[in-house]
Amino acid sequence: MKSKLVTLSILTLLLTACANNEAPVDDKSEEESTIEEKQTNDAAPEVAENIEFPEAELQKKDEGEPVLQLQEALTQIGYTIPTDGIYSDILSWAITDFQLQTEELDVTGIYDEETRIALKKVLEEGITIEAGVGLPPLAEPVFTDSGSEVTGNPYDLLAVVNKNQALPDHYEPHDLVVPDVAFPFEEDLPKKQLRAPAAEALEELFAAAEEAGHQLYAQSGYRSYDRQVALFDSYSQEHGEEEANVFSARPGESEHQTGLSMDITSEAVNYQLTTDFGNTPEGKWVAEHAHEFGFIIRYPEGKEEITQYQYEPWHLRYVGVRAATEIWENDLTLEEYFTEN
Q1: What is the pLDDT of residues 234-275, one digit of tens each?
Q2: What's the average model confidence in pLDDT over 203-212?
Q3: Residue 155 pLDDT > 80, yes or no?
Q4: How far is the first Cα of the chain from the last one, in angstroms, to the nearest whole number?
Q5: Residues 294/334, Cβ–Cβ less than 8 Å
Q6: pLDDT confidence bin for 111, thresholds 50/70/90
Q7: Exposed, middle or buried by CB within 10 Å (0-12, 13-18, 19+), for 31?
Q8: C-beta atoms surrounding 205 within 10 Å
Q9: Over the chain, what is the mean pLDDT?
Q10: N or C: which end of the chain has fewer CB within 10 A?
Q11: In the chain, where does DSSP find H-type helix?
Q12: Hey, what's the signal peptide range on this chain (predicted)?
């Protein structure tokens, strides 16, 4: 099945239309209104009890009854979204917005067990959630100077960031941490950081590699928009902008800004970021096992026409175990994952 992508601008129209509906004039007495309000409040727990909360983890590309149940639960707390059983960009936005307004949840756009518990609590206890407060939807499409469309949900764990789809220039992940792994340098630099879910997964990946006899090193993770501006300008001055864009991203188009990517290396290649890493024992082990921890080789060999970047065996992107496994088993890129059946 093909994933059904829907722009967040459509969602904005839905929210606006809902907000513009004027309430009818109420001529009832204060006593009658109080009685009706009490009856409504008394019925609220009943509504929550009748809502089914999917047990399975759900994410973009999913379809069916569990997705429909999730959509119906979200409409109960105020989200004006389609109830079509398709986990689209709109549903990912709603989950992200809900996660941003709920303490102690990873903000991923993926419906997981922790989100299920929080959503059920909100419905049962009548907690107020205002759609769009956490992540305001884009009023209309926004494009960069180079023509890339700016994503309306940079928190999305499955966001595609490439030469056609960019991150907002102001976006900085709120959950950046330094993973407890080896680095070939001691300085406390921002590039040591990853978003919390990716950092935890990287620790598990490095530990498994070490157990298998391979010592990995993390070389470069999070990179801000401003830092990418400086890097790309430097590369462009040295190589020309077109050539620079083969191995470096324009500002906003770099996966490093997501906080979900880490460049890794090993002593065998003198801690450099080079294609030779793919031929080392460490590089070969990572290529075979990274998906088990939720990572993909983002720019694989032979897929340059699709990714529009050179082969980079060192560049890992965290997408979660489920998506990473499907991508690895079917020899896909992230782009193909969202376009293939």
Answers
A1: 888 888 888 878 788 888 899 999 999 999 999 999 999 999
A2: 98
A3: yes
A4: 5
A5: no
A6: very high
A7: exposed
A8: 24
A9: 87
A10: C
A11: 8-20, 30-50, 65-76, 89-100, 113-125, 196-211, 225-239, 241-247, 281-289, 304-307, 321-329, 334-337
A12: 1-19
Report the 10 Å Cβ neighbour count for 195. Answer: 25
The answer to whether residue 332 scores a pLDDT higher than 70 is yes
pLDDT computed for residue 340 by the predictor: 78
Residues 134-150 pLDDT 10s: 999 988 999 998 899 99
Nearest alpha carbon to residue 158 among 331, 30, 327, 286:
327
Looking at the structure, do residues 104 and 196 belong to the same domain, yes or no?
no
Write out 159-189 in H/E/C secondary structure.
Answer: CCCCCCEECCCCCCCCCEECCCCCCCCCCCC
- Same-domain status, 213 and 315: yes
The domain of 269 spans 149-337
Give, in order, the Cα–Cα distances in Å from 112 to each of 18, 108, 250: 28, 9, 33
- Provide the token pair at 328: 């690895």
Q: Which helix (H) or strand (E) holds 295?
A: strand 295-299
State mean pLDDT over 178-205.
97
**Last residue of one domain, picked from the residues 75, 110, 125:** 125
| Residues 300, 156 share a domain | yes
Asked if residues 293 and 260 have their Cβ atoms less than 8 Å apart, the reply is: no
Question: How many residues belong to the chain?
Answer: 341
pTM of the predicted model as reported, rounded to 2 decimal places: 0.85
What are the Cα distances from residue 145, in Å, to 9, 250, 251, 253, 295? 20, 10, 10, 12, 31
Which tokens belong to 22?
């004027």
Give the domain CATH number at 332: 3.30.1380.10
